[in-house]
Specification:
Distance between the termini: 16 Å
Radius of gyration: 20 Å
Helix content: 25-40%
Oligomer: single chain
Number of helices: 12
CATH class of the largest domain: Alpha Beta
Order of helices and strands: EEEHEEEHEEHHEHEHEHEHEHEHHEHE
CATH superfamily of the largest domain: Medium-chain alcohol dehydrogenases, catalytic domain
Number of strands: 16
Bound molecules: zinc ion
Amino acid sequence: MSASIAQVLYGPKDMRLEKVDIPDPGEDQVQISVYFNGICGSDIHEYLDGMDLATVEHPITHEKAPLISGHEFAGKVKKIGALVKGFKVGDQVAIEPIIACGYCSACRSGNYNLCENSIGEDNAAGFLGFSANGGLSQLCNVSYIYAHKLPDDLPLSLGALCEPTAVAAQAIFNSRIHAGDDVLISGAGPIGLLTAILAKISGAHDVMISDVSTSRLQIAEKLDIGIQTIDLSKKESVREEIKKLTDRQGTDIAFECSGNGSALDADIDALKFNGKLVQIALFSQPPLVDVRKLLKKGGSLLTSYGYANMFDKVIKIIDNNRSTFEKIITKTIPLEEVVSSGIDLLISDKKQAKILVKIPQD
Ligand SMILES: [Zn+2]
Ligand SMILES: [Zn+2]
């Protein structure tokens, strides 16, 4: 048993900085000294409304709130369970925070992101930080199959970007993008920006990103990799802008990363024949989709939820493009300020993309 300072979520708007006891890792677990944990949109909803937080025993972990929040984290291996293979103390790792049963048909087919047993009866999500203790803590025990080794010289702040980058990588994979495709992304939050970076790396020709926030679009421009921006606050029409930007009749692929129904509609309008729309963002309200518009252009509606078997690819991509990914991190805050300088700021300040929490080491 070791003491650890952690941010523990008891329920909506009730997060407490506490000293908790973390047991030694189980025989198939490694204990991680967490260095950085990113805050994302789902953390905001979990904090504000208790969305996806286990309130009754989760079917796989048998845990429920209060739980330590955080699912985007990286650190160093501190202790190793008896049956763990391939790790040594001090290894740098990024954690894949998925909870999956391992035996349902989805898991057995390798699609463990779609595990049939991972969603609780209260809709709790199958992720650390929601249905088991997460990374906003000095120490966290994880099953070693979900720990992924990072290069020794990779800054652990970049390691904490593996999780959201894996979300984008799964969407890119599901889209079956080809070199030379034109791509539109709606929503310039972290997932939209990471999807734009990966689309470029995958060989997309024009990569365009739309948002209602000029500040967010400025982050896309600062990446300096040739992403074109469509500013909806200036009443730019996505369809017209795409015609201007690409001199073509629409985009091959649209990735919907905003969770906004009107953005989804604009994306469908912007597709060319046989175009593909990939839905990544979760909607808080069910959107209206006019399927007739897709039908008449032979379009496809695809989805992407979480990730499976993406971390090892993502680690290599981040390692090869460090300076681009560094620009996604707009602020680093101390553990005690998760709510005041993290969650509250992400809601009020659109100049923020990814805020990282630096976990104190003692
Ligand atoms: Zn996240
Ligand atoms: Zn399963």
